[in-house]
Structure formats: structure tokens, C-alpha cells
């Protein structure tokens, strides 16, 4: 199988990550639950992973990073832990349902939500942030990159808007973490929400939040923490405030090793290679009659400021039909449909047809990209 669906999940992982998970399965206990060697080993792995993430994202300290099962849980934790009736939140049409559905739920309870729109290439209309500002605006929630088009958002610009108006800024870095530079300080972000199983090359079941000092998020879950067991309330200090229950220590061990690989390889090198694969595919398919490519590829700068995602359609064929044929005839795995981003598809006019998303990773080869181009070319002739 030629796997071109890394924006959904990383199928291939560094060998070190696989080995570290096996070691953890055989020897790690429950972090923070005791003082024997097995639990102390688990605690060291968890803390070392916090340190690696803090360094990668330029967070204030490892203690400000709390682990979750994925980015959806991280975003739910931040959204439900910070907002309520009477608050106004600005977000965008680029967002994933992990942002939209919590906000729609809060809207039913009295939270006001506004949306910044995009143009035909999926580029945000940044001037609308000011236009949507209200007296009760509390925060902006924005993705770093669209999971549909691959367009990267200028989070520095968004962060400056939030700073100017005293707003909280929650950034969803699910599509960029590990594969594109992320800097919490440059973005002036108050909360970063991430997942471990995409660009971070880790296992599923890992993710988390980086929370700026002074930002108090109410816990989404309450329960065992390993500390202050006689308190009726869940402990208030980070990171245990947002980490009720046993952590996925085995998964975090795999994530730790993947982060080591990313650190040694370099995020810039990873992005450069993935971007080269993307542009190889784009140049190969953009001139094929009947093929439409979505997203911003207009100039060299916009082409570099992208994640490794190419969203296409072939004629008026349903995206699921195209993706199925790619898999059954050519052995190529892609993602069709709506990609859990309904407002993005409404903006692009692809609600009925959907989009076929090709997404590339460090582990893909030029030969696999050429196979994808040939398959699109042959299918477009049908």
C-alpha cells in the first residue's frame, strides 16, 4: 500500500518509537502512583516527554503541559473549561469539528460565536477578526492549518490581534505540530492544543495542551491524580489539574521516542522534505484536464507556507468513488469526503462532492508520489 493519508494519522513511525512502546509495555508502571521502580520509570518518561514538548513548542515550562488522549479532548478541555453563557468567541470556517461541535453546544447554552470566513482559495479574511469584535468577546480559537486545503494560517497576526484587544488565544496545532515550526511565544498563544499521532509521528491515544501561566482552565474530568487524595476537589496545580486518571504511559513513551527523532532530524528539514513531495505531486496533477486543486498555491511563498496536503477533485466524480478506486486499483490510500470540516467545504462549494485529500509524510518517497500522479492522470481520462 502507498499511504498518502498522513493528515489523518501517521501510519509509519520512527523505529525508535515502536521499540520504546514495547519496552514500556514490558516495564512501565503507573506514573505518580507509588515509589517503586516501575512507576518511577513511568514518571521519568512522562516528565521527559513534557520537557521535549515544551522545548519544541517554546512553552513556558514542562509543568504547563497536560496530556490528553488526542487533540479533540484537548480542545474540548480548553473550550468547556474557559467559556460559558454570555461569552463571545471568534473562530473561523477552517476549523475541525473538534472545535465546531463544542462551540455549537455552548451556543445552545448562551455562548455567542462568530466566524471569520475565507476566500475561494481557502485563505482567511483576516480583516474580519476586527469586524467580529464585540464588547463581550473573550477569545479567538483558530487552527494553524486547514486539514482540508493545507493552507497555513498566520497565527502571529492572529495573536497580535488578540494581544491588542486583551483576548485569550487558543491555537489548534494538530496539523502542524512536528511538521511545521510552532512557537507559542511568537504566536502569543495562551493555549496550544495538539495531537501526537499526526506530524509528531507518535501513537494514537496521545495529545495534550500547553497552557500559559495565569490561564485557569476548569477540569473537563475529575478523579484520581496520585496526589492530594483526601481533597474533595480535583487538585488545582498544573498539570494534574487537567489530567484525571491514569495517563497513556505506553503511548507517551512512544511519543517521547518520536519527539527524539524529530529533534535529531529537525522540524525545518521535515517540512522541507514534505513540502518537496507536495510540490512534486502538485506540479504533476495541476495541468491534467478535469482535475481541480484546492488551496493556495499562487506563488512561491504561499507554496512553502503549507502543510503537505493536496486536495483535489476529478471532474464531477464523487470523492468517495475516486478514493475507493485509488485504493482498490492502484493501492493508494487517501481520504475522501468532508474531513470533519463542514464549514470549510461549504466555503469551497464541495459539500455534495467532497474532496479527495492526498497528504504526505517524511516516510513517503518520490516514487510513491509519481505513482499517485499516474493514477490521477489515468483516472481523469476515464
Outline of this structure?
This protein is of the alpha/beta class and 382 residues long. 40% of the residues lie in helices and 14% in strands.
How is this structure best described in words?
The chain has 382 residues and is an alpha/beta fold. It is 40% helix and 14% strand. The protein is built from 13 helices and twelve strands. It has helices spanning 15-27, 37-57, 71-82, 97-108, 127-131, 155-165, 184-187, 249-265, 267-285, 300-304, 319-330, 342-348, 366-380; strands spanning 2-3, 65-68, 88-92, 112-116, 137-143, 168-172, 191-195, 207-211, 291-294, 309-314, 332-333, 356-359. The strands form three sheets. Strands 2-8-7-6-5-3-4 form a seven-stranded mixed sheet, sandwiched between helices. It has a three-stranded antiparallel sheet with strand order 9-10-12.
Q: Given the C-alpha coordinates, what overall shape results?
A: globular
Catalogue the unreliable spans. Answer: none
Number of helices: 13
* N-to-C SSE string, H for helix and E for strand: EHHEHEHEHEHEHEEHHEHEHEHEH
Global Rg: 21 Å
Major β-sheet annotation = 7 strands, mixed
Give the key terms.
382 residues, alpha/beta, 7-stranded mixed sheet, 3-stranded antiparallel sheet, 13 helices, globular
